[in-house]
Design brief:
With 323 residues, the protein is of the alpha/beta class. It contains 10 helices and 15 strands. The strands form 3 sheets. Strands 3, 4, 5, 6, 7, 8, 14 and 15 form an 8-stranded mixed β-sheet that branches. The longest helix has 21 residues. The termini are far apart. The structure holds N,N-dimethyl-L-histidine (AVI). N,N-dimethyl-L-histidine binds next to helix 9 and strand 13.
Amino acid sequence: MQTQLTTSFDTPFEEEVYQGLMAYPKHLSSKYFYDAEGDALFQQIMDMPEYYLTDREFEIFDTYKQEICNTFSSGGEPFNLIELGAGDGKKTKILLKQLVDSGIKFTYEPIDISQNVLDGLENSLKRELPELAVATQQGTYFEALKKINAKDGTRKVILFLGSNIGNLLHPQAISFLKQVQGLMAPGDLFFIGLDQKKHPQTILDAYNDPTGITAAFNKNVLKRINTELQADFDLDAFLHWEVYDPESGTAKSYLVANSPQTVNIKKLGLTVGFKKWETIHTEISQKYDDETVTWLSEKSGFRITEQFTDVDGQFKNYLFEKR
Ligand code: AVI
């Protein structure tokens, strides 16, 4: 049973929560996992032994830092190294250090929606790499890229790491890549990290850790609805559930109601009923193979010029060029 008293929304969050919980089957977007608490939980996830993605990409950078940096600096012209969604920059620092040590001229321009994240990153870079030129860009990726383009015509190398695009379905990923491609000039490069298809159990373990960090991360969307929209979700009344389809390469996260219940969301004037075992789909984490990456790149106007992988082929970083 669903009842609704109001339909005007103050924020996209309100509208998406409303639409997602009124839908059948129910869904909520994983982009709402990330508030200060969600950011901290994701940081813990990246440090978990089961979450191999971070370590494998770190291994690739550590092994191929020289080759990667040579491709970035081709021709020796100064360039802007732009990172979409910079986070704490742990992996990027390997490349930054290599570029600085090689005397290559570049400016690091991390883009993030959170000024807090950017301040933390800038402070740590000042301490660890004082000679590095940094120009942080607060805002959405596309706003910030447009601003960078308007400022000067310096060649761009754009980083999008951590298989972040895997949280988008293929059509959304293509539209995202097309927008990036549209903001690139000939000669600019796009360097993207993509998690690969592998033993299904390895993937399930990465998204279903025994300590419950991933479960807390998944439930953080309910916690945000409780605090920001004055709701009364009982977090213990939902199970975190992960499935992986080895054919499509899609890992999906759900929250599953373990009892019949009614949730009130005051800010939306909404009462939402859940049957026992009813689901809320919250996240996809797409896994890739070379054929799929080639298809995605071609669909969005790119060509793959190089790729780097860890020793077991678990993760890959691809270099895309505008076609
Ligand atoms: C940010 N993103 C690429 C992570 C992933 O692997 O899908 C988010 C995450 N969800 C659960 N664990 C990590």
